[in-house]
Amino acid sequence: MFIVNVEGAIVKNDQWLIIERSKKEEHAAGLLSLVGGKVEQEGNTTDILERTVKREIFEEVGIKVKDTIKYIHNTSFVTDSGEDVINIVFLCEYKSGQASAKSKDEVESVHWMTSQQIENHPYAPSYLKESILLANKIITTMNNC
Could you tell me the residue range of the domain that residue 69 belongs to? Predict the structure, then answer.
């Protein structure tokens, strides 16, 4: 059985909202990451993934994103503690709020970073870089339409 996790690649003025994961986290402690979290069981429902990513973004960093959430990609991985996870990444556009680390148990710090800064950062894992690359491709395609 998989844990389902969602993440938001949040863009504002050509910068991405990136968190440094808390050093207390079981998985990927201290690494840079997109904002997100686990999908909770809700019974029969619709748009659970989109609602979850919006909720997690607000809970973790205190900002709201626009309703126009776009699917980027999904991956699977095994956590450091051996749990199987499906991770789904969405492109989100900043709407309002001041980004800050709401829970030091989950988020050490928040940063608005360019794609280049993420690419060159020593604590940016390859999967984060891949998500940003794919998000940029979607933005480019949308701008060329």
Answer: 3-143
CATH number, domain of 120, equals: 3.90.79.10
Residue 39 DSSP class: P
Residue type (1 letter), 42: E
Determine which helix (DSSP H) or strand (DSSP E) holds 49, and give its type and residue range: helix 48-61
Percent of the chain with pLDDT over 70: 100
Give the pLDDT band of residue 67 (cuts 50, 70, 90): very high
Return the amino acid letter for 49.
Answer: L
Contact criterion met (CB below 8 Å) for 127 and 31:
no
Residues 6+ apart with CB under 8 A from 81: 26, 27
- How many domains, in total, are found in the chain? 1
- Over 80: is that where the pLDDT of 78 sits? yes
- d(CA 70, CA 109) in angstroms, rounded, equals 25
